[in-house]
Amino acid sequence: MTKLCLVAGGTGGHIFPALAFAEWLLASGTDVTLSFVCGSRPLEKEIYASKGIVPLCLPLSGSPFGAAGIGSRILRWKETLSSFFVFRDFLRKEECDCCLLFGGYVSFVPLLSCHLGGIPLIVHEQNAVAGKVTRLAFRLKKKIASGWGECLPFAEGTYTPTGVPVRSFSPRDPGEAWPRLGTGRAFPQKPIIGVLGGSLMSERLIQLLGYVIRDEVLQKCTFLFLGASQQVQAGLFSGDRPENVLFVEKQWDMTDFFSVIDGAVARGGASTLSELMLWGIPTVVVPWKQAADNHQEKNAECFERIASGEIWREDEPLEFLKEKILRVLRKAQNVRKEFSEGDESERLWRLISSSIGREITNFG
């Protein structure tokens, strides 16, 4: 039996691929036992709890590399040192055969621990641009699995494209899925545009859309915002929220949301784009300008090449955003929304098996 440790933290964009891969492993009958590791942020625990998983939570609140101010950096490095010993003891107790990192600030400690302990380790990089931990792992000659066909700045052939593992879905009839979202409104008899700003929701994305959704043409659409807090809603649409704007609470199971929308406007997180691509949902991608190494821009460019995607950048005229939303709606009318199932998890498992020198068994 293979003992596999999955490390993922920070945001849903890192955690959901780990959970999707775990889901695939268990469903395929693979002879493996799984353990999960994350950081100490409440969001991480909430996501794992939604799947009934109790991970090892390292006493980390963030990356020591991104802390502002000397005091914060000292605190983060103290947390890092403490987490190193916690994780080292965990590895010894669990006797893990391999550790698979899905990114986020929590990944640095497991990388260092596994490297010093001689435990096989693979980094799955969801983004088209490698993060700091992925680059360090590359220098340490660890295997890199890439979510896209490119993983900058690495040369082609130095990493293994596997795709991004995506949660399994069983699509529902839109009429059945709509009341489950709890909007309190009747099912709209007009196109629905889903707005996804990531597991933390982007207030800036809502602000940008706030300028265009009152347009006469776009009034013929319903905009369904996912996961915006009550505070954000009140601040942006105080007193005069347009009739074509609806909000739904964050969903850890996206089946109902994806089942009702015809198109989407989304940030450029790799996990979100991979799920939209699987569902075949035409999407306007609005890359977050402050993403590290501009990785959301690169993700968006990959998505545009291989899916029904459009890119709108925040320094472009808002009129262009409106035009791209309308273009996405036209695509939605011509593209039947259906699954495009891939074998991302199987490719990732093959990479793991080759790393620990074991044959793959018991999956169909």
The residue fraction in helices comes out at 40-55%
Oligomeric state of the chains? single chain
Number of strands: 13
What is the H-and-E element order?
EHEHEHEHEHEEHEHEHEHEHEHEHH
Shape: globular
Beta fraction? 5-15%
Strand order of the largest sheet: 3-2-1-4-5-6-7
State the end-to-end distance.
Answer: 17 Å
The class by helix and strand makeup works out as alpha/beta
> Quick one: biggest sheet?
7 strands, parallel
Alpha-carbon Rg, integer: 21 Å
Average of the residue pLDDT scores: 87
Low-confidence stretches: 358-364
Number of H- or I-type helical stretches: 13
Question: What is the element layout, followed by pairings?
Answer:
Elements: E1 2-7, H1 12-28, E2 32-38, H2 42-49, E3 56-57, H3 70-94, E4 98-101, H4 108-117, E5 121-125, H5 132-139, E6 143-146, E7 160-161, H6 174-180, E8 192-196, H7 203-210, E9 222-226, H8 230-236, E10 245-248, H9 255-260, E11 263-266, H10 270-279, E12 283-285, H11 295-306, E13 309-311, H12 318-334, H13 344-356
Parallel strand pairs: 1-2, 1-4, 2-3, 4-5, 5-6, 6-7, 8-9, 8-11, 9-10, 11-12, 12-13
Helix pairs in contact: 1-2, 1-13, 3-4, 10-11
